[in-house]
Amino acid sequence: MPGPTEFIGRVRVSFHLYHITVIIINYFLMQVLSNKMDKSILVAIDRVKKITKYKTHVKRTTKIMAHDEHDECNVGDTVKIRLCRPLSKHKSYTVTDVLHKGKVLDTSAVVASRGSFAASGVPLDSNNHEEQSS
Q1: What pLDDT score does 113 carry?
Q2: Are 52 and 24 in contact, with CB atoms under 8 Å apart?
């Protein structure tokens, strides 16, 4: 599960001849949950909601899709995303920075190690061993 979400906000005010325009730019720091899509990632916002009637706290999670232009994010990375115009039905955020790279499991090493155990006759789990002996 990703850790707490950090919010960084900035307000930009521009003065025109007859009106004032206020643009709020929102940044979030969060961890990547999935990167299986092409140029898209899935991140989550965790928050705690207080229920005053029952005097309890409930954890709520919101999943957000963000646009990753260079396809450089992996699962577990800490990224900085910002609000932008809607890019598709579900994407309204873009990745600005990858702050910390997460650990990536090397699946080829796991498959190779299982193959060497199977070739040597060593069972992979105890349940499989019991079925073979009876």
Answers
A1: 60
A2: no
- Token pair 């910390």 in the structure block, residue: 100
Tell me the per-residue pLDDT of 66-89, one tens digit each, with 9 for 90 and over.
Answer: 999 999 999 989 899 998 899 999
Is residue 68 classed as helix, strand or coil in its secondary structure? coil
- Break the chain into its structural domains and give their ranges: 6-102, 104-134
Max Cα distance, the chain (Å): 88
Is residue 78 within 8 A of residue 106, CB to CB? The reply is no
Q: How many helices (H) and strands (E) would you count in the chain? A: 2, 6
The domain 6-102 having CATH identifier 3.50.50.60: the answer here is: no
Q: Please measure the distance between the N-terminal and C-terminal CA atoms of the chain and give it in whole angstroms.
A: 42
Angle 25-1-35 from CA coordinates, rounded to 5°: 65
Q: Is the pTM of this model over 0.70?
A: no
- Mean pLDDT within 120-134: 53
Can you say whether residue 39 is alpha, beta or left, with left for phi > 0 and alpha for psi between -120 and 50 degrees? left
